[in-house]
Amino acid sequence: GALFAPAERDGLSMADDNDETETLFVWGCGEDGQLGLAEAPVSHNRCALDWHVPAPTILALPDGDTVRSRPRYTPTKAILAGSRNSAALASSGALYTWGWNSHDTLGHDVDDEWIPRPRAVAAVQAASRRAANDDAARSQTSRSQTSAAAVTGDPSDPSDVACASLGGWHACAADDDGALFAWGGNEYGQAGVDTGTAGRGVHVSLHLSVPELVPFPGPFDGLGSSNRLQIGQVACGGMCSFAVVRRTGEVYTWGQTVGSEKEPARSPVRVPGIRGVATLAAGMFHALALQEDGRVLAWGNGDYGQLGLGRPGNEDTPTEVEALSRAGVRTVAAGGWHSAAVTAGGVCYVWGRG
């Protein structure tokens, strides 16, 4: 079998290698290092080796690491294609990113504008460990224990990255514990972390050079355990982000709300009237949700028909795509201004800007 992640001008694909890992193939335009094949640093504003790769070529991850065969929380993708950058979830539990690093989208806290080869985002696993320590520390505090020595944890043993998504110029990832982290552009609050200052009635946010924990609702219950929401899926749009809660399938969003001229949400807010989501996909300014009962919902910008509602224009609230009501949809995907759905019978529906 194969998985394919569409990108703007480059291709990524996985082909079965054995029961545990996958072989990663790349092809197409790699002028910004998004194919990950360049051996030398970027020069003359471009990568010398992978400007144009006309046929699928194997891309090996560093240190013998391999692309994850079966993501822990289906339908999480193990390979991700951004507009001019790429990422992969590895069998080691690491997240690798490469390509154009504008707004620190790749999460490496470096000044390099391009990362021409896959590089592990060490900071996301370190942030995961800090989040686990913070939860444990607060748990100890709630039990009136004063010693913090037992909750420091081992920074060399962080939680694995379970899922990730690349947005316009930001990224999100959740770990095995369901904690969510974000980095990159945050001018519209799409990273979900308030890093700005207010002045003259205008809120200015900065970009995040390394992954930071996204503060989700969830107070401690007073018995020493955290009720923080556990995230099972993430999807990044152009200037916003989405997350699906594992147990309930509820959806949260933040950033510049799709299909709305409301003020950006600087922290996660629940999308009303929707739960039981099996798969979530985000385009540049629209979103799709496949419900556990097989219904497909769409909302956001619909100027190019990407919502599939039979009419142009925006939709502020999740609305059923009636044309797919009896199709038996099993998964959905969203590009910049187009959408797709695949049925149990292998039929692919597409709509939007063509």
From TrEMBL:
PANTHER family, per the entry: REGULATOR OF CHROMOSOME CONDENSATION (PTHR22870), ULTRAVIOLET-B RECEPTOR UVR8-LIKE (PTHR22870:SF385)
Acetylation is among the record's keywords: no
Record flagged with keyword Repeat: yes
Chain intervals for the UniProt region annotation (Disordered): 125-158
Feature: compositional bias, Low complexity: 138-150
RCC1-like domain span: 24-354
Source organism, top-level taxon: Eukaryota
Cited InterPro entries: RCC1-like_dom, RCC1/BLIP-II, Reg_chr_condens, Ub_ligase/GEF_domain
Keywords: Repeat
Protein name (database record): RCC1-like domain-containing protein
RCC repeats: 22-92, 178-247, 249-293, 294-345
Pfam families listed in its UniProt record: WD40_RLD
